[in-house]
Design brief:
single chain, 15 helices, 0% strand
C-alpha cells in the first residue's frame, strides 16, 4: 500500500485536480455528498499526523538563523494577511453572501502559514530544510493563537466568528496530531533505533499525508458540486484572485530573498511563506463556520490546485533565479582572472 501511496505523493500535481473533478462528478450526479462532511476530522488527522510524526524537532534548536526566522514570520503574520485582506476586498464584493465567505476563505489561507509541504518543496529546490522545519513549527504555533483573533477582527463583518471554538478546532488539528506524532517518533526511535527510524519507518509516513490531501479535496468538491455546476463562473471568479495572491507572493519573496539571504535560506523563506497550510485551513472552514463552511472551503480547495502547480513551476526556474554556490564561485574566479 505504501508503494502506491508513494506514487500518489510524487504525482500530487495531477492527483489533486483529478480528485476534485471526481468529487465534482460524484457530488453533482452520482451520490448525496452531505454525509461526507463527517469525514472531515478523521481525514484531516490523516493529513496532519504523518507530517508531525516526521518533524525533526531537534533542528529547531540548531543554527543561527534568527534574522531569517523573524523575517519569515513577519511576512507570514503581517504582510500576507494584509495582502489577502486587500485582494479579498478588491475581488469579492457583491450582494450575494458567497462573496464575503470567499473573502473569509482567502483570509484563512493568509493567517495559517507553513504546511508540511514547506519542507518537501524546500528539499526539492535544494534549500535549507533545517530552516524550513523551524518555519513550519513556529508558523503553526503562532498561527494557532493569531488566526482566531485575526479572523474575528478582520472578517467579523462577513461571518460570525467564535474565537474560542475556532481556537479549539485549531488545537484539535495542530496540537493533538503534533503530540501524537512526536510520541510515535520517540517510541519507534527507542524501540528500533535512530537509523531504522530514518531509513525504514520515517519514509512510510509522508505518503499517507498525500492520501489525506487528495481525499479532503474530493470531499470538499463533492459537498459544493451542485452549487458549482449551477454557477460554473464561480470557479473563474475564485481562481483569478488566488492566482494574483500566489504570483505576488512569489515575486515579493524572491526579491526579498535575493536581497537579504543566501541561496539556501532564500529558498526556504519562499516556500516557508508560499506553501500555506491549506489542510488545516480547510478543516477549520468545514468545522468552525457551520453551514457556511462549505462555501468557504470551496475557495480553499481550489487553492490546492494553484499552490501545488505554482510550486512545481517555481522549482523549474529556481536554478535561474538563485545561482548554485559552484556557479557563483566559478563566476567570481572568471571575473578575477
Amino acid at each position: 500500500m505504501v508503494k502506491y501511496l508513494s506514487i500518489l505523493q510524487k504525482n500530487l500535481v495531477w492527483a489533486i485536480p483529478i480528485s476534485m473533478v471526481l468529487g465534482l462528478i460524484g457530488g453533482g450526479f452520482i451520490f448525496d455528498a452531505k454525509p461526507l462532511k463527517q469525514l472531515i476530522i478523521p481525514i484531516t488527522f490523516l493529513m496532519v499526523y504523518p507530517m508531525m510524526t516526521t518533524l525533526n524537532v531537534k533542528s529547531i534548536f540548531k543554527g543561527r538563523d534568527l534574522k531569517l526566522q523573524i523575517t519569515t514570520q513577519l511576512i507570514n503574520f503581517i504582510l500576507v494577511p494584509a495582502v489577502v485582506y486587500a485582494i479579498g476586498k478588491s475581488f469579492f464584493h457583491g450582494v450575494d453572501p458567497k462573496y464575503g465567505l470567499w473573502a473569509v476563505g482567502l483570509f484563512l489561507i493568509g493567517v495559517l502559514p507553513a504546511s508540511g509541504m514547506t519542507i518537501s518543496w524546500t528539499g526539492f529546490a535544494k534549500g535549507n530544510k533545517e530552516a524550513a522545519t523551524k518555519m513550519l513549527v513556529f508558523g503553526l504555533l503562532i498561527g494557532a493563537f493569531a488566526a482566531p483573533v485575526y479572523t474575528k477582527v478582520f472578517m467579523g463583518a462577513n461571518v460570525d466568528v467564535d474565537m474560542i471554538h475556532m481556537f479549539k478546532q485549531i488545537c484539535l488539528f495542530v496540537f493533538v496530531p503534533l503530540l501524537a506524532g512526536l510520541a510515535t517518533q520517540q517510541t519507534i526511535r527507542k524501540k528500533h533505533g535512530d537509523k531504522a527510524w530514518s531509513e525504514v519507518y520515517k519514509p512510510k509516513f509522508a505518503p499517507f499525508s498525500a492520501l489525506g490531501v487528495t481525499m479532503i479535496a474530493f470531499v470538499a468538491m463533492s459537498l459544493k458540486a451542485k452549487n458549482i455546476l449551477a454557477n460554473p463562473t464561480d470557479i473563474l471568479t475564485i481562481l483569478i484572485p488566488l492566482a494574483i495572491f500566489y504570483t505576488l507572493s512569489y515575486v515579493m519573496l524572491t526579491i526579498i530573498g535575493k536581497l537579504l539571504f543566501s541561496r539556501e535560506d532564500a529558498i526556504a523563506m519562499v516556500f516557508g511563506v508560499v506553501m500555506r497550510d491549506l489542510s488545516i485551513a480547510l478543516a477549520i472552514a468545514m468545522t468552525a463556520f457551520g453551514k457556511e463552511g462549505s462555501t468557504i472551503a470551496l475557495l480553499i480547495s481550489l487553492a490546492y490546485v494553484i499552490q501545488i502547480q505554482s510550486a512545481a513551476w517555481y522549482i523549474k526556474i529556481v536554478p535561474k533565479i538563485f545561482k548554485e554556490k559552484e556557479e557563483i564561485q566559478t563566476m567570481n574566479a572568471n571575473f578575477h582572472a
